[in-house]
Amino acid sequence: MNKNYYAIIMAGGIGSRFWPISRTSHPKQFLDILGTGKTLIQNTYDRFLKVCPKENIYVVTNENYTNLVKTQLPDMADQQILTEPVMRNTAPCIAYGCFKIESINPDAAIVVAPSDHLILDETAFVNTIEKSLQLATKKECLITLGIKPSRPDTGYGYIQYTDQVLSEDFYKVKTFTEKPTLEIATTFIQSGDFLWNAGIFVWSAKAILNAFSRYLPEMNEIFADARPVYNSDKEKNHIHKAYQQCTNISIDYGIMEKADNVFVLPSEFGWSDLGTWASIYQLAEKDYVGNAVIPSEKVIMYDSSNCMVNVPGEKLVILQGLHDFIVVESNNTLLICPRDQEQNVKQVVADVKTKFGAKYI
Q1: Cα 86 from chain centroid (whole Å)
Q2: Strand pairing of 317-320 and 142-147?
Q3: Helices marked H in 196-251 — which ranges?
Q4: Three-class secondary structure of residue 110 per DSSP
Q5: What is the C-alpha to C-alpha distance for residues 242 and 100, in angstroms, rounded to an integer?
Q6: When comparing pLDDT for 279 and 354, which is higher?
Q7: Fewer CB within 10 Å of terminal CB in the chain, N or C?
Q8: pTM for the whole structure
């Protein structure tokens, strides 16, 4: 296993689309949302154990989730858990992780990935990451993984690529597009040169630090100034103060859309970002009338079809005459809504917070 290979797992999100199961105090990356016996972050960590040594895996998360990470990933040392005092999107999170790793090993090649995605074909995933890390070690390029799209989905970002190729399989990126309308997404699929943006990145420490220096100089300065304190007792206090100065910006918008050395590797490894209940429904086992019930021990359904049901295992639930609905209960909260209106959940969460305070959030 290559000792220059590192992984950064981003685990700071609050997963509000999976409310009420996902709460601010216990978000979806720390849940076994698919009923596999492992949480999403545990599955992500296990995948990266096949790519790099366990001491080379880092988690960046909100300070409030430190104990959750320690409990669920007991093999991680304290210095491998990087905490953020506030949410500032992906650019500061990635800058922190990459600067810290570079201070330990300037020759590092790094993969950065969210903690809450599903990968069905782990062998293909590991091969894809290793291939990308090999190229990142040789060339100063920023690599992103693009998923070959199976349908015009409006929930994903899209990457358009050109014919310019690096090392046979990596294509020069032309444009990034955030979640498009269905009409535009359909055009993208028909054109054949668009991929879904998986939000997984690979680069050398040198390449990404050069990119921060060029495209986000103020943020670069914040984390470069911290070089004397990385891996010391002073690191946490210094970074927590410095974080307050960071702008709230994504790595896509801050660097990837601007840089001229970005390449995409078209990939297929059974990926889903598990962004909504619809994505869970799509992946879950269903009965002969399309109901997905997790867990299913004490749920009885009459004349009901195509429902996504997630309720506490000990609760007896009877549903009759319900079609194409989401039924979720957790934390003393019950949510029932049509499957085609699940995008409203974020607004529901905001309304609940306004009416009842943070108690139910």
Answers
A1: 18
A2: unpaired
A3: 205-215, 217-224, 235-243, 251
A4: strand
A5: 14
A6: 354
A7: N
A8: 0.94
Is the per-residue pLDDT at 296 higher than 80?
Answer: no
Contact partners, residue 244, CB within 8 Å, separation at least 6: 85, 86
Instruction: Go through 250-262 and write b for each residue having 16 or more CB atoms within 10 A of its CB, e for each that does not.
Output: bbbebbbbebebb
In sequence order, the 6+-apart residues with CB closer than 8 A to the CB of 173 are 144, 159, 160, 161, 162, 256, 262, 263, 264
Q: Where are the beta strands (DSSP E) in the chain?
A: 5-10, 57-62, 81-84, 109-114, 118-119, 142-147, 158-166, 170-177, 194-204, 262-267, 271-272, 292-294, 299-302, 308-310, 317-320, 325-330, 333-338
Higher pLDDT, 160 or 151: 160
Tell me whether residue 59 is exposed, middle or buried, using C-beta atoms within 10 angstroms of its C-beta: 0 to 12, 13 to 18, 19 or more: buried
At residue 7, the 3 state secondary structure works out as: strand
